[in-house]
Every structure is written in C-alpha cells, then in structure tokens.
Amino acid sequence: MTQHNQEGMKHLREKAEASVAEHQAEISDLSIEQIRKLVHELQVHQIELELQNEELRRLMTELEQSRNQFSILFHQAPIGYLALDDVGLIHEANETFCRMVGRNRNQLLGSPFADCLEGDDRSVFLSRYRAFFQESDRQKPGSVDPEWSRCGVSRTHGRNDHRHAHGTSAAR
C-alpha cells in the first residue's frame, strides 16, 4: 500500500470514528438481546462491505485491462489519431500521427494542433474549433457537425472531454 493510500485510509478511519462518537449509544443501556442484534447487524454489514470491495477490485481490474487494450489500439493504429483539449492543444497522439507530421510525441504533446496544419486547413481549424465545442454541447451526444465528420473528427464524453481526430491530408 502506498503512502498516499495509507494516509487516505487513516483519514477515512478518523472520519468514521468521529461519526460513531457523535451517534454512539450507551451499551449499558442496551439489553443482551439488543446487543446480539447489533453484533449480528455489524457482522452482516462487514460481509456486505467485503463483498462490495471484492466487486470493486474485480471491476478495477477489468477497467485497467480495457484501458490497456484501448491504449494498444490507439497507439498502434495504422491511422493517425490524436486527442485535443478545449483550446486545441494536443493532449495525446499516436505514433502514426507523429510520423505523419514528422515530429516525436514529446514535441507534439501540449503544442497547438494548428501548428500541424498548413494553408486553408489551418485557418478553417482555428475559426471552427471553439464553435465545435459550443455546438456539440447543444447537440445530442454522438452527433457531430457534418463539416467536422468529413474530416474524421469526433467527440468523446468523459472526464477530460477531449476531441479525437484521425489524420487527414491536412497534416504536414
């Protein structure tokens, strides 16, 4: 267990103990039967928590495997893929896209996608990208402006809400 996890568990324990202290009944006021019921409820609750914990761990393992499979597909795709943030900076790029634009991944990450475009494609991108975010927010999930879909651009909904594009002839 990492230091961060240990501190988090300690914090959770302290919170739980503070909550118990606020709501604690006097055990001396309880009958033997009430104490037995309470112990039974605590045992059942403990088993429920253990089962939930096992399920969470299983799901985390599945999620990690899925993420790893997606990462392999993304990075080894024969088409150039990249993910952009809301201002058009490159958040992620696969090796194919790097080869298409003649740069290594470290040079691309954090740089403007517009730098990878030339001529009219660059000005179209710069004028439409912000509108793309605003328009997509008003559209149904999964719908994309036809002008953008022609270029192979799609939006994924998630924690960081990035745009994904596959390489076109517009890239240098």
TrEMBL record:
It holds the Pfam family PAS. Residues 13-73 form a coiled coil. InterPro entries: PAS, PAS-like_dom_sf, PAS_fold. Keywords: Coiled coil. Residues 66-136 form the PAS domain. Residues 156-166 have a biased composition (Basic residues). Residues 138-172 are annotated as: Disordered. It comes from the Bacteria. Signal peptide: none annotated. The keyword Coiled coil applies. The keyword Nucleus does not apply. NCBIfam families: sensory_box. This is PAS domain-containing protein. It comes from Candidatus Competibacter phosphatis.
